[in-house]
């Protein structure tokens, strides 16, 4: 079986659902169920004997050791993290704990389990670390995209802790020979994304008749990838990636935030028209994010060249699917917009 950490979050859950759909191999899903983890996303799998869910913290070494010993996974796919930049600005401690200490604990547990394996199982074992393009810092409008050799220059507590975790993963390969792989992906969007992130937040606010809060001048650029394409890339890297190497994953979809919000409003005007006017009328410019990175962009040629991966969705097809999914799954959205979510919105947007 495979061990997935953070499999109740946005990307981890999409990965688990696709894995169980496409393969017979069972999944051990280890997730702490923070505010960002949601078992409702995995409801379709609750009676599936190939999906074993364990609520646990990756920082809890004894539990992680026990899970390795009991389930003997052939691979670890490490998604679990604190993932929201704005939250890392308000409270970095959880980010250091989960992203750095948690990844270290998981690496230690994996190394100790791996050392008990016979030579064939040792050679087949994989530790795949899911990381971000934010570790490379910020680009100017004319800089080339981030490649696998771009130096690390993280700017937020979130990206600094992800960079720290990437370095630990690299060191465990170099020093101990642990068979690791790392992926650094650009901004994901798609079903089951928590509505604190740009796209689902804008959809939720638009439908609720609330302001659409664009930070600063709205001209910061992100490189958007449909979550299903990210999941396929991870499967490819797991199956055929070169040990110790890193792979950049991106969709060649650079957009300003303002472009994204206008496109979303256009789709909503089409799919769920308002009684009068356009959702665009709700766009509001608000105070900028401190230290806001100007531009991210991924050069994904290594993944395309070495492993034959290409995204299946364009930004237009992926975003239309996503908006339709949120319109069709308002129960899921209402369920995750709990008291904790309302507290966050008050702290971030109303203060
Ligand atoms: P998410 O915040 O939606 O989900 C994170 C999951 O990890 C949640 O289910 C949460 O309960 C779990 N978790 C948090 N702390 C934990 C702990 N201590 N122990 C066990 N579980 C814990 O995040 P996401 O957007 O799905 O991102 C998943 C991974 O992909 C992260 O490592 C993130 O850095 C990376 N990534 C995200 C994006 C993106 O655009 N969302 C892009 C590139 C890389
Ligand atoms: O690049 C990959 C990263 O993408 C991942 O590693 C992170 O886990 C993920 O959260 C995401 O980080 P961003 O900070 O780019 O995503 P976010 O959705 O928070 O913001 C996208 C852009 O939109 C960013 O420039 C900030 C802006 N924004 C965001 C919010 C929530 C707004 O203008 N208004 C908002 O209300």
From TrEMBL:
Its EC number is 4.2.1.46. It comes from Paraburkholderia azotifigens. This is dTDP-glucose 4,6-dehydratase. It catalyses: dTDP-alpha-D-glucose = dTDP-4-dehydro-6-deoxy-alpha-D-glucose + H2O. The keyword Lyase applies. Gene3D superfamilies: NAD(P)-binding Rossmann-like Domain, UDP-galactose 4-epimerase, domain 1. Residues 3-322 form the NAD(P)-binding domain. Belongs to the NAD(P)-dependent epimerase/dehydratase family. dTDP-glucose dehydratase subfamily. It is an enzyme of class 4 (lyase). One of its GO terms (molecular function) is dTDP-glucose 4,6-dehydratase activity.
């Amino acid at each position: 079986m495979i061990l997935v950490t953070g499999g109740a979050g946005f990307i981890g859950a999409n990965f688990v659902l696709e894995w169980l759909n496409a393969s017979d191999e069972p999944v051990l899903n280890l997730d702490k169920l923070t505010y960002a983890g949601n078992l409702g996303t995995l409801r379709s799998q609750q009676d599936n004997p190939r999906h074993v869910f364990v609520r646990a913290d990756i920082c809890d070494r004894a539990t992680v050791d026990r899970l390795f010993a009991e389930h003997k996974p052939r691979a670890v796919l490490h998604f679990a993290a604190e993932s929201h930049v704005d939250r890392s600005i308000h409270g970095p401690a959880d980010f250091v704990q989960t992203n750095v200490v948690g990844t270290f604990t998981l690496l230690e547990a994996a190394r100790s389990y791996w050392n008990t394996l016979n030579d064939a199982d040792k050679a087949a074992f994989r530790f795949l670390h899911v990381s971000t393009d934010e570790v490379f810092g910020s680009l100017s409008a004319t800089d080339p995209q981030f490649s696998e050799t771009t130096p690390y220059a993280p700017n937020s507590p979130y990206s600094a802790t992800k960079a720290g975790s990437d370095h630990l993963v690299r060191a465990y390969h170099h020093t101990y020979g642990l068979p690791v792989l790392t992926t650094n992906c650009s901004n994901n969007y798609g079903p089951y994304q928590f509505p604190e992130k740009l796209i689902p937040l804008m959809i939720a606010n638009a439908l609720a008749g609330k302001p659409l809060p664009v930070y600063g001048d709205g001209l910061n650029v992100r490189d958007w990838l449909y979550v299903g394409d990210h999941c396929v890339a991870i499967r490819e890297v797991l199956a055929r990636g070169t040990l110790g190497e890193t792979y950049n994953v991106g969709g060649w979809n650079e957009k300003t935030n303002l472009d994204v919000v206008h496109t979303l409003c256009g789709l909503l005007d089409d799919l769920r028209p308002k009684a009068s006017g356009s959702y665009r009328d709700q766009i509001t410019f608000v105070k900028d994010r401190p230290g806001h990175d100007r531009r991210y962009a991924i050069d994904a040629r290594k993944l395309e060249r070495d492993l034959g991966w290409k995204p299946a969705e364009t930004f237009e097809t992926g975003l239309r699917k996503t908006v339709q999914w949120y319109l069709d799954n308002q129960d899921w959205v209402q369920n995750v917009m709990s008291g904790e979510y309302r507290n966050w919105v008050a702290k971030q947007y109303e203060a």
